[in-house]
Amino acid sequence: METIVDNKAGRAALPVAAWWRVALPAATFLLTAIARTWHINRHFAMLEDQIRDWGIALGPFTSLPLVGPPTHFGGYTIGPAPYWILWLIRVVVGPWFDNLPHGGGVGQALLYSGADALLLIALWKRTGSAWVALAAIVLLATAPFDLALSAVVWTPVVASALARTATALILLDWHRRPLAHAAVIAAIAWSAVQTYTGAIFVALGVFAALLVEECARRNWRAAVSRAWVIAAVVAVLQLPYLIHQAAQGFSHPAMGAVTGSIAGVARGSSPLRITESSAAYVHAVAFIEFSPWSATAAGWILLVCAAVMTVRYRDDPVLLAVTVLPQLAAVAGYALWAGDLQDYYYLSLMPAAVITILLALTTFVPARAARVAAVAVCLAAIVAVPARLRFASTLPRMPEYEILVRASRQIAQRQQPIRSIEPQFPLPPTCDPEFIFRVLGGRIDRQAEWRAQIAPDGRVSYSR
Prior knowledge:
By secondary structure, the protein is mainly alpha-helical. Helices cover 62% and strands 2% of the residues. The chain has two domains: 273 residues, no CATH class; 64 residues, no CATH class.
């Protein structure tokens, strides 16, 4: 038996078999990894970003850029963390898949599933309820949009995994350990920002969690020490960016569109878009977490649950810092953004939203019925899994990937240079049909005698 508890109230959960403490996180890691990588070798989305970034990761570490990938609105992310992570995935996981790009997707999925298992442990410890923890992970890991992207080599997904890891470490009370632990948390949180700028709101919440307890106790010396640790970690991680900028004569700004939007609001030439930002966040939560069902009341659910959380856990500012604060910061931050607002901007915020909703819902019931409510919520989340998995399978994939891999292997076995590889079926505009052949060691020579054609069934023919 176990009950939901508030650790600060001094109550403890009834004992649970020790093996569950290992078996449940292990099962979470395994099952979520399987769900994310199921048939990835058949439908991996090998598009422009994936080809560019995996191609960079195939090189030596010394050839990696000092900044992150370019963004769709100009500029680039502010540090090399995404390339460092992808390079490590290529070194550790890539050889098991002939260094083909879907191997990067498998490595990314394993990173994500590890973050899920850690968050499960953290929520279990924080709430005293395995049911609440499991419900949160089931809702997060089987969210169709998130699931469909989780094994795609893409920076917003990696940033989400890093942000989830930093949040889990806060919930595990790492912020109360020696300063070295605070440095690790800050490094992970800032690496998420380097990977995808939209993770800044989670990072702000994590930084606040590292400081808020010492500030509340008016232990200013400890608070200043932690602030210096955060600043030092960020400064060290930004050294590659500064080196890059110095090499470019400081003429190549990273996030010019972001600073331009903020400057426009400051000058009064652009409006502060609070309404649009709020609507975009609500739409993202509804689409990512409530699909395949509609959630017209998602805005009210989030608002009421955030209010309940703020009141119920007003004596636990650390918990509020990693749940309510990042959501409020995102609404305020994106109100300064002059561009469009896409659902994937908010991927890293989903743990904050789900935890807020679950803890608020369990607050509404009497303490003696808390366990029943937690079990009911968990079972409802599990029952919804098949429908969510089916919906995830309908989201954009690239079934032509399997054909390209099979045909490229066949062409590479000839060990002859090829003038070109020409699929006889449509591919997404940014897909390069010759990339896999080159990864397998094949050589494209525009002066070569033969060119290869790939039929829709994967058969290969050659012509001069």
